[in-house]
Write a structure and sequence with these properties.
two-stranded antiparallel sheet, 399 residues, 2 strands, globular, mainly alpha, single chain
Length: 399
Amino acid sequence: MMEKSIGSDNRWLIRYSCKLLLSVILFIVTYAIVLKLSFDHLGDYDAHIEWALDLFAGVNPATVYPFWHFCVRVLYGFCHLFIPVTPEYIAAYFTGAVNVTVYLIVSDIIKNRGCPFSELISFPLMFVTPIYLPWYNRYIYLGQVSPNTWHSPTALMIRPFAVLAFFMICDICEKIRKKENISLKSYISLLVVLLLGVLSKPVFFQSAVPALGIYIVVILIHEKAEGFKKYLFLVLTFVPSFVVVLFQFIISFYSDNGSGVGFGWMEVWKHYAGHPLFSMLIALMFPFLYILLNCRTAFRDISIRLSSLLVLSGFLEFAILYEKGDRKNHLNFSWALNLSYFLIWIATSCRFFSDLKIMEKNDRCAVTKYTVLLIVWLVHFACGIYYAGLFLFREGFAF
């Protein structure tokens, strides 16, 4: 009995040490990239740092979704009382901490969903990008859209809230399907997370509302309106966030800050990609292949169903909408798709490695299938490491 306890303690220590080491590596990479972009005036960091410093001075673009800016401004004000630190270092420290938080959240979520080696599997998910084909996509990110980007602080800031909210919604929907009771605390927690999300960047809300709307309508029709009251409570958790998003939309696009929203099929996407659908395919090669090769079982997982709807919603938003004026080609309607890619990557990777654990080793067909999938997964990861390396070691690289 004592030997079993000691073995269990050793496994816990190994997993804890692994998670700590990978967290430190991720923090250092994020910190270095953000610091380089900030001082070299590349990407979006220099503008967002300036807005953060002016946050309490009046209305500026940061007041639309101010969470990252507020945290950086408060930390800078506090630290500056004791040490002569510049805001660029504070932004790098804080953004690094946010990215590590995302890693820890993803690791815990997929562990709780039965995925083995969650500490190891979650780390590559923080790097995966579209597959780099130099003869097709000159840029890994531009034109393809990516599960992971590094150049935008607000795109990183939304991720912990989006991951939490997405899997909270999945759990609530699963409980409704199983006719289990859902506590008021669960609805209130989701409401708060959604609200913090839209204060960080409203992109999860933008794709989640139509995606969840489609899901609920289909389920209610199929189940003959059973569970309607619980789904209604789920919808109501989005109402406070809707009020905030409406304000953000008006200020961003129909005030002095914007020129309005335009409509046109692939109007912006074609500016960066010759074949947008192929670009989408190389960004989602692993999730697409996993679902295709496991179509009978994949969609039984509610996280795969909902994340697929999120991708569809984000795709239509980016394909149809664009910002009028000088910012037309700034890809501001692609962020919901970026985030949806990240969520479907988590959902399919979790299911893939859970399947891998119980795979019949003597089934040659299954071994071949999962070997191919693992190779594709690792290629995405390798491209992501290369992408991060470009930020760190190539001068003037911003996207």
